[in-house]
Amino acid sequence: MIRVGVNGYGTIGKRVADAVDAQPDMEVIGVAKTQPNFEAHTAVKRGYPMYAAIPERMPLFSEAGIDVEGAVDEMVADADVVVDCTPSGIGADNKALYESHDTPAIFQGGEDADVGEVSFNARANYDDAVGVDYVRTVSCNTTGLSRIIAPLREEYGVEKVRATLVRRGGDPGQNSRGPINDILPNPIHIPSHHGPDVNTIFPDLSIDTLGLKVPATLMHVHSLNVTLEDDVTAAHVRQLLESESRVYVIPEGLGIDGAGKLKDFALDAGRPRGDLWENCVWGESIAVEGRDLYLFQAIHQESDVIPENVDAIRAMTESAEQAESMVTTDEHVGIGI
Amino acid sequence: MIRVGVNGYGTIGKRVADAVDAQPDMEVIGVAKTQPNFEAHTAVKRGYPMYAAIPERMPLFSEAGIDVEGAVDEMVADADVVVDCTPSGIGADNKALYESHDTPAIFQGGEDADVGEVSFNARANYDDAVGVDYVRTVSCNTTGLSRIIAPLREEYGVEKVRATLVRRGGDPGQNSRGPINDILPNPIHIPSHHGPDVNTIFPDLSIDTLGLKVPATLMHVHSLNVTLEDDVTAAHVRQLLESESRVYVIPEGLGIDGAGKLKDFALDAGRPRGDLWENCVWGESIAVEGRDLYLFQAIHQESDVIPENVDAIRAMTESAEQAESMVTTDEHVGIGI
Amino acid sequence: MIRVGVNGYGTIGKRVADAVDAQPDMEVIGVAKTQPNFEAHTAVKRGYPMYAAIPERMPLFSEAGIDVEGAVDEMVADADVVVDCTPSGIGADNKALYESHDTPAIFQGGEDADVGEVSFNARANYDDAVGVDYVRTVSCNTTGLSRIIAPLREEYGVEKVRATLVRRGGDPGQNSRGPINDILPNPIHIPSHHGPDVNTIFPDLSIDTLGLKVPATLMHVHSLNVTLEDDVTAAHVRQLLESESRVYVIPEGLGIDGAGKLKDFALDAGRPRGDLWENCVWGESIAVEGRDLYLFQAIHQESDVIPENVDAIRAMTESAEQAESMVTTDEHVGIGI
Amino acid sequence: MIRVGVNGYGTIGKRVADAVDAQPDMEVIGVAKTQPNFEAHTAVKRGYPMYAAIPERMPLFSEAGIDVEGAVDEMVADADVVVDCTPSGIGADNKALYESHDTPAIFQGGEDADVGEVSFNARANYDDAVGVDYVRTVSCNTTGLSRIIAPLREEYGVEKVRATLVRRGGDPGQNSRGPINDILPNPIHIPSHHGPDVNTIFPDLSIDTLGLKVPATLMHVHSLNVTLEDDVTAAHVRQLLESESRVYVIPEGLGIDGAGKLKDFALDAGRPRGDLWENCVWGESIAVEGRDLYLFQAIHQESDVIPENVDAIRAMTESAEQAESMVTTDEHVGIGI
Ligand SMILES: NC(=O)c1ccc[n+]([C@@H]2O[C@H](COP(=O)([O-])OP(=O)(O)OC[C@H]3O[C@@H](n4cnc5c(N)ncnc54)[C@H](O)[C@@H]3O)[C@@H](O)[C@H]2O)c1
Ligand SMILES: NC(=O)c1ccc[n+]([C@@H]2O[C@H](COP(=O)([O-])OP(=O)(O)OC[C@H]3O[C@@H](n4cnc5c(N)ncnc54)[C@H](O)[C@@H]3O)[C@@H](O)[C@H]2O)c1
Ligand SMILES: NC(=O)c1ccc[n+]([C@@H]2O[C@H](COP(=O)([O-])OP(=O)(O)OC[C@H]3O[C@@H](n4cnc5c(N)ncnc54)[C@H](O)[C@@H]3O)[C@@H](O)[C@H]2O)c1
Ligand SMILES: NC(=O)c1ccc[n+]([C@@H]2O[C@H](COP(=O)([O-])OP(=O)(O)OC[C@H]3O[C@@H](n4cnc5c(N)ncnc54)[C@H](O)[C@@H]3O)[C@@H](O)[C@H]2O)c1
Fold first, then answer.
1. pLDDT of residue B337
2. Domains, chain D, ranges and CATH?
3. Inter-residue contact A23 to A47 (CB < 8 Å)
4. Were D332 and a residue from A222, B270, C195, D22 both cysteine, which residue would form a disulfide, CB within 3.0 to 4.6 Å?
């Protein structure tokens, strides 16, 4: 059993913990939090040993009726791998802690690329992380792009990617984030930083990205254009994407015309938290004009990186090859709708 | 086993079906739908026999790979009780169908009060529906108000209720509803129709309601003022509400400051669809000035009426007394967070 | 001519400057800003002498092509009255500056009440500010409530006010403020601080307020209940409110059902910035049940306090009596739709 | 003087009337409306003779205190040109009326292209409308695209245009339109109908468009990619666009990062209704990668087509050449910020 600690138990951390807990070859030896909020109580109910990310705050947890196992460094010392799911920037600060205990660690996409030796997407570059100690799983948007680009490159060759990322302003619980009524070019500068982030996965890819932020909380939507090296048909591309386990091609007849209905669908299917770990590509949108492929996909920012974190653990600990890991992850997370 | 058919399998209908299915004394003998959309596929996965609400559309279901048992009137004929969950107004149209088969039926709050012989809230007037053939469970807002008013009346006496209902513009999947950026007095006329609807449950209650509509999808929020007949303390009221099984008093320390975090909490707890069947009253908001009680509560429009529908089935079929029914419903729906 | 300086030239400051500039007995001797953003360019176009709120930043203004007259303290020294329109909290910090130059100053509602000797609403307590050196005009919400309460008290006597304030999350340009999709009890604690703020105008008034925040930017909406001392009719109250110059009673036939159309109406009427300086009360909403008066009003947070600032200048400088000042202000600001 | 009638006095119609009224060579001989709502009162205040679009409704206008000159067909008979600004689809129905009076007419972009003999954009194809009787000014989005494409084609040649149109869900007053919290691919099908609409202006242009709808009301935002035939620099393109009178290149230093601040800027500048008749291109966003040009532009859906309607009148009546007309329009509408 790979002993995994989760440092930072918020939107990403709680999902990583549950996904790790569901794997046959892993166990959650603890989660660390700064505050005894509602998520801390969830952790307790799920049976995850609780560690205090800030040792002085331990009494706050006791007052809230939550037993604390110890301070975060004990969890780090005890773990085979730590998954750092703290807010952007904190992860880099935490690296020294992981190094001081010689504990390999995974960082999230909110960190700069150089926090890890490798940036990681299971489908695209699993092998690069094999045996590596510090790995960064790329952001939700980069993960979403990588999963589409990888098969397209392998199958047809990619000349150029142009992507407009229409991003949700905040997660459902983040009620202090805006905008309320605006469409923000964000960043205004073009190309955005998302393209270079994709290049951490595909170094030689020609990609230009444009970012926007809008008043929605459920999912990002990508407007994607890929100039391929070969002539293709939309039907062929569709088949290719349908064969990818982490891409869900939405069938036409379902009446799913946005993220609201997609989430309803996931909730109806009994998915935990209504999570959509897969890229959700509208089948009807897949179109080819010459060598130009177009499509729309919705990306569930809160969950698409979760299976990637699980696979990164196996790569770093050299406990499985890519295909085996991905299949195991998919099965135990519950991918396939 | 009480044989239950669900006519209209949308936001309310799919939840009613699942809640009925979970009861030890009931079974879902079928659900009827007009279209083979994503919710139809969910029904199939859940094993509910599918009936066509519009017989001519049966071929559409077959084309979508969904087996249809028959037309809706067969389901109605076969059921002990039908729960009508069709859109507002359609329920009244359907009444003749239920009558023609002598099948008792429950209607939802979108219908006018006179569609049923009785308007129903399990906590407030269960006995009024015992043995009755046509019952209307009241709307999400009226249900939310009734659950608070009932215990306050019993314990302290209520002189007057004044409530401002800040209503969500649409459900998460209803993407064509607005407003996008407005706060609408709705209806502009005061008092709104919600007060008279509460009077179908408490005929002699003095209540004035004001309705608004805002750009949010998750829950309604009520700003409630109740002038009581007795002097009370906020602590006493809080204790009273905490003792109600279908009221959840949100503890201060959890950091839950809105509907977004409430829903996250419900999803974390593993609740199906993140449903919050209980009124969610902010404990911190309960305040008393003289005989004036104030509080804020959030009402999950998609699910608070679900346990009420289950209880209405038992009342109509005279299969359990109020307390027994409510306890059974709560246990098998999963109330208690 | 009263020589007025405006410190802080943002949402409120730019409107105060224009309103002052339009008065026959006042002139804008300067406005002070921290940054040469688009609003600074507007100031230049309007011919307002520009002062640097932070002297070290003067070069930034020159680089942007904006001539700076000097540092803010020169403006303060030169003014008969300064209107401080800096962000909440900064005003209090600035008080020492105004005192050091013996320059009377007006602060805005974002400051604590004790920043001034008097909290001010022209309709309700003009005389309290006569000859006073440091005055705070109350917030947009308190201004909106005061304008309704004053005539009701005078005409009928007020036993109790209960108000639910459904507040916009941010102004149209404040794109980093939320919520995006939530209805927030804000503050969760009841009664909210708004009631005590109204008590700075009417010390002996019995008032309980409840605050919420929603994803809208145009206007606040108040759901208001006033228990009067006399029996009245809705028609009588309506007439009373229609006779108030800073209350606009929206006629039924116009088809104005929200803040969006209200703003369109103001823009169509050629109002500068589409400002609605008046409380906008829906005529159709005015209702009386016994001694309980109810109504909905929309409050344009960006502009309702503007005429109040102008009147405060006259009161402080003892240059006009209440009625004369209000009439002059109204005429030159452009009140009356 | 060209005698102009405006049929349909809503969002577009009221702006067209004001713009026509401001021209030295045109007069508004009447506006026709279906209802005496707030916009009808505005028309009266502006002195536009009112005609009843539905003759039977004349009494409604009288009851509302609005004098009606007559029925719409009298206005049509009396006009040299009618600008039809009725809702999508109604314009086509109205064509027979215009034809029966031999009155040339302009239709808006909500109509199908074949309603007119020519689709029109002043910058791109003014001459095509010279002397033509039935002309359609293209939609807000097509107008916005055409104004950028025309100079790029002339200067560099255009190989291909790819545009993602992030569209506002509704105008500020349209409070029943959604979505509230979603990002909708709309239409889901790619390419969207917007590209073919641009082809009514540039028949041989290679263009693929993708449409989305989001919860915002102020402006559309275009994420634009143009593959040029020549190598260029961003600076050169910027200069080119800055020389276009109906393109406003937003300077970096102003701090304008979205539509909210853009509208504030327009309102501060005293623009009627805060209108932004120009395409608003973020200067900072103009970028070139190889022959690929990228930029973000905001399009004010309510007003960008207004100058185009004015120019169409001159083209149809052969009263001015393109350059002269555009200069006159710009000057009297007030273009240039
Ligand atoms: N939310 C998303 O949409 C999303 C998507 C992909 C990647 N990410 C990345 O995942 C990371 C986590 O984001 P999130 O959305 O889960 O944030 P979050 O705010 O929901 O959760 C962060 C958690 O870390 C805790 N924390 C704060 N400081 C800490 C510290 N010093 N030590 C330990 N715990 C601490 C917080 O209490 C909280 O529980 C970020 O790098 C983010 O960029 C987020
Ligand atoms: N959604 C809420 O927030 C909410 C809350 C409380 C009560 N209600 C009430 O519940 C009722 C149902 O509302 P909903 O939100 O579930 O609506 P919905 O639109 O989500 O679902 C209605 C379902 O009925 C089906 N339908 C339509 N016509 C039909 C017909 N003739 N026969 C059979 N099925 C038909 C539709 O296909 C759909 O599946 C309404 O009376 C509504 O007012 C809704
Ligand atoms: N916006 C509203 O809805 C509203 C309504 C009523 C009252 N108020 C109150 O008015 C005041 C101003 O609010 P606003 O909305 O106009 O804010 P704002 O942010 O729009 O404008 C504040 C201006 O002050 C400038 N500024 C910042 N620090 C400064 C300093 N040290 N010296 C001088 N200028 C400085 C900023 O650059 C900006 O131009 C606050 O007290 C606020 O609570 C605001
Ligand atoms: N609003 C926009 O963003 C926008 C932008 C560009 C083009 N357009 C196009 O302009 C046209 C008008 O749109 P709008 O937004 O101004 O609509 P609107 O609804 O604001 O105004 C339409 C007006 O026409 C009136 N009307 C309705 N039926 C009529 C009839 N039979 N005869 C005369 N008048 C009638 C209505 O009362 C209303 O005053 C549409 O084709 C639309 O697609 C709209």
1. 82
2. 2-138+305-333 (3.40.50.720), 140-299 (3.30.360.10)
3. no
4. D22
How does pLDDT run across C300-315, given as a tens digit for each residue? 999 999 999 999 999 9
| DSSP single-letter state for residue B233 | -
Please judge whether B254 and A175 are an interchain contact, meaning their C-beta atoms are less than 8 angstroms apart: no
Q: Are D302 and D12 in contact (CB under 8 A)?
A: yes
Q: Is the ipTM of this complex over 0.95?
A: yes
Q: What's the rounded Cα separation, in Å, for the pair C143 and C135? A: 14
- pLDDT over threshold 90, residue B334: yes
Q: What is the pLDDT of residues D133-184, one digit of tens each?
A: 999 999 999 999 999 999 999 999 999 999 999 999 999 999 999 999 999 9
Cβ neighbours around B119 below 10 Å, total: 27
- In angstroms, the CA B110 to CA B139 distance is 7
Chain C residues whose C-beta sits inside 8 Å of any chain A C-beta: 168-170, 172, 174-182, 184, 215-217
Please write the tens of the pLDDT for every residue from B39-86: 999 999 999 999 999 999 999 999 999 999 999 999 999 999 999 999
**pLDDT tens digits, residue range A147-200?**
999 999 999 999 999 999 999 999 999 999 999 999 999 999 999 999 999 999
Q: What's the gap in Å between C91 CA and the centre of ligand 3?
A: 9
Compute the nearest-CA separation of A12 from chain C (Å).
20
pLDDT tens digits along D79-134: 999 999 999 999 999 999 999 999 999 999 999 999 999 999 999 999 999 999 99
C-alpha C123/C-alpha D261 separation (Å) is 33
Q: How far apart are CA D126 and CA D118, in angstroms?
A: 10
Q: Which of C264, C276, C282, C302 should be substituted to probe chain D, the one whose Cβ sees the most D Cβ atoms within 10 Å?
A: C264
Cα-to-centroid distance, D259 and ligand 1 (Å): 30
Residue A140 designated active-site: yes
HEC string for chain C: CEEEEEECCCHHHHHHHHHHHCCCCEEEEEEEECCCCHHHHHHHHHCCCEEECCHHHHHHHHHCCCCCCEEHHHHHHHCCEEEECCCCCHHHHHHHHHHHCCCCEEECCCCCHHHCCEEECHHHHHHHHCCCCEEEECCHHHHHHHHHHHHHHHHCCEEEEEEEEEEECCCCCCCCCCCCCCCEECCCCCCCCHHHHHHCCCCCCCEEEEEEEECCCCCEEEEEEEEECCCCCHHHHHHHHHCCCCEEEECHHHCCCCHHHHHHHHHHCCCHHHCCCCEEEEHHHCEEECCEEEEEEEECCCCCCHHHHHHHHHHHCCCCCHHHHHHHHHHHHCCCC
C35 within ligand 3 shell (Cβ under 6 A): yes
Contacts of D162 in chain A (CB under 8 A): 162, 225, 292
Average pLDDT of the residues in B270-290: 97
Cα–Cα distance between C87 and A44 in angstroms, integer? Answer: 42
How far is C139 from C149, CA to CA, in rounded Å?
Answer: 15
User: Of the listed D12, D52, D140, D198, which one is catalytic?
Assistant: D140
Instruction: Over range C186-207, report the average pLDDT.
Output: 98
Nearest Cα residue in chain A from C173? A182
User: Does the pLDDT at position D337 exceed 90?
Assistant: no
**Ligand 3 in reach of C15 Cβ (< 6 A):** no
Between the CA of D247 and the centroid of ligand 4 the distance, in Å, is 25
CA A289 to chain CA centroid, nearest Å: 31
The share of chain C scoring above pLDDT 70, in percent, equals 100
What mean pLDDT value characterizes chain B? 97
Number of CB pairs < 8 Å for C and D?
91
Pocket test for ligand 3, best of C33, C85, C120 (most atoms within 8 A of CB): C85
pLDDT at A337 over 90: no
